Amino acid sequence: MPFIPHTQDEIDAMLAVIGAPDIESLFDDIPAALRSGPLKTVPDALSEMQVGRLMQSRAAPDAGALNFIGAGAYEHHIPAAVWDIATRGEFYSAYTPYQAEASQGTLQLIYEFQTMLTGLTGLEVSNASLYDGASALAEAVLMAVRLNRKSRSRRVLVPASVHPAYRATAHAIVHAQGIELIELPIDPAVGRVDPAALAAYDAEDITALVVPQPNFYGVLEEVDALTDWAAAHNALLIAVVNPLTLAVLTPPGEWGAAGADIAVGDGQPLGAPLSSGGPYYGFMCTRMAHVRQMPGRLVGRSIDADGKPGFVLTLQAREQHIRRSKATSNICTNQGLVVTASTIHMAILGPDGLARVAAASYANTHALAEKLRPLGVEPVFAGDYFHEVALRLPVANAAPVLERMAAEGVLGGYELGRIGWPDAVLVCATETKTEEDLQRYVDTLARALRS
Amino acid sequence: MPFIPHTQDEIDAMLAVIGAPDIESLFDDIPAALRSGPLKTVPDALSEMQVGRLMQSRAAPDAGALNFIGAGAYEHHIPAAVWDIATRGEFYSAYTPYQAEASQGTLQLIYEFQTMLTGLTGLEVSNASLYDGASALAEAVLMAVRLNRKSRSRRVLVPASVHPAYRATAHAIVHAQGIELIELPIDPAVGRVDPAALAAYDAEDITALVVPQPNFYGVLEEVDALTDWAAAHNALLIAVVNPLTLAVLTPPGEWGAAGADIAVGDGQPLGAPLSSGGPYYGFMCTRMAHVRQMPGRLVGRSIDADGKPGFVLTLQAREQHIRRSKATSNICTNQGLVVTASTIHMAILGPDGLARVAAASYANTHALAEKLRPLGVEPVFAGDYFHEVALRLPVANAAPVLERMAAEGVLGGYELGRIGWPDAVLVCATETKTEEDLQRYVDTLARALRS
Amino acid sequence: MLIFEHSKPQRRAAAQAPLTHASMNGLPERFRRTSATGLPEVSELQAVRHYTRLSQKNFSIDTQFYPLGSCTMKYNPRGANAMAMLPGFLGRHPYAPEAFSQGILSTLFELQQMLEDVTGMRGVSLTPMAGAQGEFAGVAMIRAYHAARGDTARTEIIVPDAAHGTNPATATMCGYAVREIPTDADGDVDLAALRLAVGPHTAGIMLTNPSTLGVFDRRIKEIAGLVHEAGGLLYYDGANLNAILGKVRPGDMGFDVIHMNLHKTFSTPHGGGGPGAGAVGVSQRLLPFLPVPLVAHEGERYRLLDEQDRPQSIGRLSAFMGNVGVLLRAYVYMRMLGREGMSRVADFATLNANYLAKRLAAAGFTLAYPQRRATHEFIVTLKREARETGVTAMDYAKRLLDFGIHAPTTYFPLLVPECLLIEPTETEAKEALDGFVDAMAAIRAEAASDPAKIKGAPYTQPNRRFDEVRAAREPDVRWRPAV
Amino acid sequence: MLIFEHSKPQRRAAAQAPLTHASMNGLPERFRRTSATGLPEVSELQAVRHYTRLSQKNFSIDTQFYPLGSCTMKYNPRGANAMAMLPGFLGRHPYAPEAFSQGILSTLFELQQMLEDVTGMRGVSLTPMAGAQGEFAGVAMIRAYHAARGDTARTEIIVPDAAHGTNPATATMCGYAVREIPTDADGDVDLAALRLAVGPHTAGIMLTNPSTLGVFDRRIKEIAGLVHEAGGLLYYDGANLNAILGKVRPGDMGFDVIHMNLHKTFSTPHGGGGPGAGAVGVSQRLLPFLPVPLVAHEGERYRLLDEQDRPQSIGRLSAFMGNVGVLLRAYVYMRMLGREGMSRVADFATLNANYLAKRLAAAGFTLAYPQRRATHEFIVTLKREARETGVTAMDYAKRLLDFGIHAPTTYFPLLVPECLLIEPTETEAKEALDGFVDAMAAIRAEAASDPAKIKGAPYTQPNRRFDEVRAAREPDVRWRPAV
Prior knowledge:
The complex is a heterotetramer, with two copies of chain A and two copies of chain C. Chain A is of the alpha/beta class. Helix content of chain A is 35%, strand content 14%. Chain A is built from 13 helices and 17 strands. In chain C, 36% of the residues lie in helices and 11% in strands. A seven-stranded mixed β-sheet of chain C has the order 1-7-6-5-4-2-3, with helices on both faces. Chains in contact: A-B, A-C, A-D, B-C, B-D, C-D. Chain C binds chain D through residues 6, 8, 11, 15, 43-46, 48-49, 52-53, 56, 61-64, 75, 77-79, 336, 427-429, 431, and chain D through 6, 8, 11, 15, 43-46, 48-49, 52-53, 56, 61-64, 75, 77-79, 336, 427-429, 431. Chains C, D: It catalyses: N(6)-[(R)-lipoyl]-L-lysyl-[glycine-cleavage complex H protein] + glycine + H(+) = N(6)-[(R)-S(8)-aminomethyldihydrolipoyl]-L-lysyl-[glycine-cleavage complex H protein] + CO2.
């Protein structure tokens, strides 16, 4: 009986205390007609050794490619110490820190995490995490609607340069509350929000404006102008940012004259492995004035009965377990363990380490784009890009070219054909890529274009 | 500066306290003529990411084979929990537990280890580990010579069925002290010690007799008779055992009428990965009467100033740091972390788990030998074997056959040609092997024999 | 000490970032950060030491008994972690092409099937990232179902008063009004109240069975009939699935949609507050509405189905495909338990709970529903103790920490005064349960002789009891350097 | 509580062994065990919880400052562990054929070369499994060298009185008599005594430089000359190599043979007492005698050299090729440090030691060799304090534990009374050193006001001070169930 410690002697003794003839009789409240028959799909048990071999056989075929895909999930080096410590039993198998006295490890760590995120975003308060970047955007939209009492429209402008899956997720989560997400087109020449398109809403009641930085195409948005537009039009400004890039890019709190109201994004680049898309974590930072409308858990520093400082979950009156149908969100479990890893990751990398990672990723992507020019490969957009770039291949359809590259073990990028640019590929070369890796990309693409 | 925390400000402040102009001046006791020039072979530093990729490239080509080699190192399943816990910083980065109050984790664990090993061997006391099985045999020989005051010969009988590398190691370590290891031949028909050969020493002064179980060829020795011979001839009996098999085989403490005096062996089958041969650990158990001649560390239970029980290193007067040139051995560092893992391994497997592993290994090896008979493959020896068997291939030279199998990813066994049986292979199929694995061995060997 | 207090300007963990600082020549000045991030500057050893020591300040399953009702704090197999962390799984990009995806997709497909099997549902989507997101998906599907039928009058979700807070919060997020109904004296849904509540405005009901009161609602078929007759759907909150695994299936009880907390029933780690996974299962009529992506098996290949394949889907709840690493751990756990292991979970969770309940009752504690069979959890009410000695459920909870036992869930469900909701789980040995009884009895004796001592507990933790009011009144939610 | 006290008959961790018990029909009765093994029968959770909690009772580098002289307790990079535990390395059988060995052999070959480089030796064997085994190998090679020359009169090894206990113990194991020589007032070898000691009976001398007194013997060339002229060889005990890495090479000082403690200088973990690795390096004349196996690079292939390739070898010291997993960690560490990182080790180990020595002296403590430059370690003598207050070096050591700092090495070297041998290592930050000074000063103040308190320390550990005499007099070295 895997994981069950009971011996027959103990079972007998326990049943005697209960006064039941057998375990089966403990289920006598369940109507007989409802009782399950044998399971059909669940196979017989395997030992850890057997499952281990099975899982190795599952993991092996998905491994071994040289990856140049980004598109919202980025390959970065994670120090070995990070997950070694995060998976220590005391972090790994702990519950949500409701009993503060028995959870100071997790609570202090989250307080440190909150401090780090406010530092990166330039805002005043961070929650303890949301699920991922996409759902964090949805929560930010809901929060903005609650906050913006001057606006009645429940209409939010979302640029087409926001990650398409983020837009889809936000729509799925907010639409039942009568909130409309309006797509704001980009200027196809430069790859960022078209100021003319924005100007079309000058006279409208807009609850919030979403601004990605860098945007889905890797292009840097003119965040100052967009932020100032929002402030001038009584719209809240929701920033969607890659937190790693904030080591070197202007933080949302400093955008424009007033800064962003809410910054969200995905913490994955800060210590979470790619892992097929999760678990990552969403983060959310905002102004202190907005804290009571912020969803998710929050840790605060307080003092105990002896006056000794320590940490507790605080402002829980926002949350579902207290406020039920009037809560800011239904979120309960969030992404604690990934936050644990990410906090350790940020502590080890530090400001200089993260800046080096960001700079190396910037430099590698730019170097790769340059190396590809001789093949007739050009950036789709003229706008400045950071560590990801949309490249137009000298073919009508990029998909078969990517397939041929994959057959050689090189994942050449995200197919922009999925969202309407059939000849284009979104390419990312992080600090994990060497000179030889970049050259391998060039050589593989050259072969794929020829064949 | 990897792993060095100093900032320039701190360096300056520290030098000011020291009163030195620079770090270089701290080395002014070293004569200038001796100072090193630049290193030649050590390359420039790599980041953890870079070394990680390098090491993956080194590990990959050595992986992936289906292994049927035993010969002193056995592939067994190790529960994931074992090394997860053993590599926790508190075990991994702790020093030898000289400061008992700050080392109760390691000390209690070793006390538990000692108890487990005495339980397995049926002896009264175990040390905290030696380096490996081979060097443990050497220490056992030295110990036997110290112990056996009735014998003056310093001659020890070592059967040819003891692992050849163990014999070589024991010779290398003991010969400078004038100790002679005499090879005791085996009966080539049955593959175990030839009683007639032993009888030749009936009238000789023999300090100790070494008895392997199972022996190097996997064959079970007639341990009772050998032990009784030793007792009758004033020789100490040194058992060399695979500790896993003691879950089901008669323990050395119960051999013959009096039991073995010393049992040694390699703990590898109890939780250490194959890892190219190390780190494993040697163990040594003996009678309580012999404890003061036993080398290595020993943990005892005691009480503290409050009368609370706890654990300390004890009987240190045997050891080099106290007794210096009169110590029982020069051993200092032993194999603590592997012992940590092994103790957890034994606790998780328990008596039933280890017995199942042993039985499955026995059954798999016997099943494989049976499946190979149709290929004309037969056991070399008629003696009962446990989970390893010497098989004679229907060819004059087994080496090229093994090479062809390896080319198909099957490591078919240890080449007995290295020690004089050119047509034979020593094969081991532990509990890690499935029916399909055994069939793959058969099919691969069949192809290799044909080609 | 905070990590920031170990920081010194220009201190670095130099092995962990590129050795040189690459140029970003082309990056226009206006995008460049000029302010400090405030991140700590520490050595690798300092970070390792700091966080290793912090971890030691936590209770966890790996170190303590954790009888936390409604949370199913069972052993998280280390093997499941090791297998989920295989490099092939960790390194795979979510947009990797199919050729580099068959291993993970086949695994997730099998997980979908196994979860369908144990819940009796017709389809499963693995994408929700926690129980609450699973709830959202479930209620959104109920909404989509009614909408697809043009049935727009249904504006209410019925929720029993014993429900988890996430239930009403979810209904609100999905644009529904919440109608609360009471519980009867036996802990079951008050059927009369339900009859009054259901009607053409009823979109559905959200139930847990066994409920958070630790009892199995025997009239579940009747409830299902009432709601279905009124045109509503039944939502099953899977928080308590551990109680009935392999014994009775929500699909067979009449539920239309269920979320499962894989981090409870299927033993993926709680991780100090996630990541969880809240897979949803549905009956035939809700199949078209499942959130995407789903994994399909087509011939020899596995592939992801997205919005284009599933036009009626409620859509996407995360950027990629949910918490895949968590799903892998649940898969490994299910394979290690196997067919027979599933019902053993319920067997021994229930045996442990009933044994513990009987022993606590024998020790003088009051069970909230002494007339009922306990399921995998049960409630002790300390109302009498609080009245007689002033020692409350919270005081017991804090004092238990000094005995090396995590507090049970306190003050939930809300309708039982001074309650402790106790769930031992199947992975705890009888000795742990006996130790809990001994600790509770010892606290009871202390409460009689020295109640002030208990009020001051805990004494053995890094901190004594906190001033939570102050924390909320003057929130200090980030560290700032002393100026 | 011991693991055995959690045991119950027939309790099992059922996921961890074959699911069924295979038959051993063919095994004759006489070989079968009939007695119990006494191994514990516990669940996987019980084992995990027990050993996780035990681990928390340890001090370790990852949790505490460990200024343990002569032990070099520096940070053990987690990355080195992760890379050494790659499945390809863990799974390789020691007798795997060459085709499945090139990865590991190429790595070990490069490690041999790097160690030759940093020690100035001509050849390195990686096989010794700890420092003491490296010492054995070294002295055995000295013996083999003399024997090969027919020089059989050499029966003595000279050892300074400050040497590690392993040095004389090793000489004895190799069949030599030990001749101890004194240290002069400056902590250097007493040259006059050495001159008297050397002669045709001298096989060699075993030295550490810097010595265990924490000073560098400036007359090392003179010593080497004396010994070599007498026909003896010089053995370098590498325990203190951290002090001089990249600064001065033992080979250049005139040593013929050296062992390195990779678990000190090259930061492989101490593991609570091993596994270590004690690679040996030799000068030209000892090359033929290196223990096997060695790794050779021949054309494109790497292969192991054994006794047949190296007929003069002292032979084999382990069944296979030493503690390969430890060697891998050392290799990774060396690659991360790189060429320039090597001498930085000595730079900052020495800076830290000299800073700490100065600050302790300023705080009123007596340095054993105040006239000398500290190397990577130094000695404080508490002789005066012990006389004045009765508080001994051991009392300071135990009280330091209450400050969260591991005790320095006490009462070694034997010739300095009431000594603390203090080695901070290069990976500790200035704050840790300052914290140590503060703790020492606080203990000093306590010693004046309340010496009994210090005598009773530690107070914050799982146990108070132990009765070690009783432990040795009535050894209780294994648990036995109460009858």
